[in-house]
Amino acid sequence: MVRKVSLITLLVLALSLMVAIPAFADRPDQAFGDKTEVVVYVTGQGLYFDSIIGPDLPFEGPFQKLEMGPNGLQTEFGPGDPGHHGGRWWMDLNGNGVMDPPGEGGDRYFSCPLLGPGRAEP
Length: 122
Description:
By secondary structure, this protein is an alpha/beta fold. The chain has two helices and eight strands.
């Protein structure tokens, strides 16, 4: 009986998400509240991806470098590429090319997932 109730609850939750996600996709301002929307160019793919700047992350685990390029934010690897860390970014704020701890004189580590599909124009 408990197993049957759990399965029904899971199905209802899955169906709810299937309805809610497309509704929010058409209204990103409502879906993401006050989060900043950005476009990131992936140099290795030649594609632009929409993204939402998320929270700062602790200085633990793998990060991918995100930097300013001629057309705005850019990185080398994107979804499907080895070296892409799923939107875990670091910015070299002090310009020394080394992942320094965050804080005064250090770098920034944050979440900013790339939202596909990528496109050829910004």
